[in-house]
Design a protein that fits this description.
Length: 267
């Protein structure tokens, strides 16, 4: 049986990052098309505005080459980056430094969210309550990346959020967590609408990730899989016996039968 391959963490030799002014028409870019930039190079001056108290300078956030300049609005930078893929996202695009707020299988607690998290993208196992989302938004957190959260809390929250596994309280994929832990403090771009977190690569940095490879692979017993059936959407488990079109999957100690078309192989 062939199943789609799900690569959660992928290195891309060519990625594009848009750096926008907080308010269109309010600011001036220093760079032009063809300019080479580094992550902490200033690329624009941003004057004081209602959403931007005090004059500031906008950094590139990534290293690469400016390939497009939209005067008074944005620039497009060609770079190399690592993409972390989720299954469900909500909210506007945001950016910030990665901050580990909880272990891969632990909840992001209210006590872990404080003023020091401002301008960060928080990472943890799962978000247990709506109050955590509300406090994170109140202190200036830019977004959350986690394994899952309750559907009701997800729907009521306004904070940009990327669920790597799905609804409920599944732990964050271990490979994803280990990668994000390794690059904690790195600037990242959260795009919930595209179900993706883009992590800038630093010059000379070597990440233990793979480039996009096979799209389908033969499902074998013992493989790590992700379930996309309604009752267990997004949960991870181990493939067991394959009988016709059905696959036995072990989930948290329980065994369920899932149609092969509703499984993805994790690599």
């Amino acid at each position: 049986m062939l199943c789609p391959v799900i690569q959660k963490v992928i290195f891309s030799k060519q990625a594009f990052v848009e750096r926008r002014l907080p308010v269109a028409g309010h600011g001036k870019f220093f760079v032009k098309k063809g300019t080479k930039v580094r992550p902490f190079d200033f690329v624009a001056e941003v004057p004081e505005a209602p959403r931007n108290p005090g004059s500031q300078r906008l950094t590139a956030g990534v290293g690469g080459e400016v390939v497009e300049v939209l005067s008074g609005r944005a620039i497009l930078i060609k770079t190399s980056a690592v993409s972390v893929r989720g299954v469900i996202g909500k909210g506007e695009d945001e950016e910030g430094e990665i901050r580990i707020a909880a272990d891969y299988n632990a909840p992001i607690e209210l006590s872990a969210v404080d003023a020091g998290c401002a301008s960060n993208v928080l990472v943890g196992g799962f978000v247990p309550t709506l109050e955590v989302f509300k406090k994170a938004e109140a202190v200036g957190v830019r977004g959350i990346v986690c394994g899952g959260t309750d559907f009701a809390a997800f729907q009521k929250s306004n904070l940009p959020t990327l669920l790597i596994e799905g609804f409920g309280r599944p732990p964050l994929n271990r490979k994803v967590f280990e990668f994000l832990k390794k690059v904690e403090g790195r600037h990242a771009f959260l795009s919930p609408g595209h179900e993706e977190l883009l992590v800038a690569r630093l010059d000379g940095a070597v990440e233990d990730v793979q480039e996009v490879g096979e799209v389908f692979a033969k499902l074998e017993e013992g493989m790590e899989v992700q379930v996309f059936s309604a009752s267990c959407f997004g949960q991870m488990g181990k493939a067991g016996k394959v009988q016709g079109d059905m696959v036995e999957v072990s989930l948290n100690g329980d065994k369920i039968s899932v149609p092969g078309r509703n499984l993805g192989i994790i690599k």
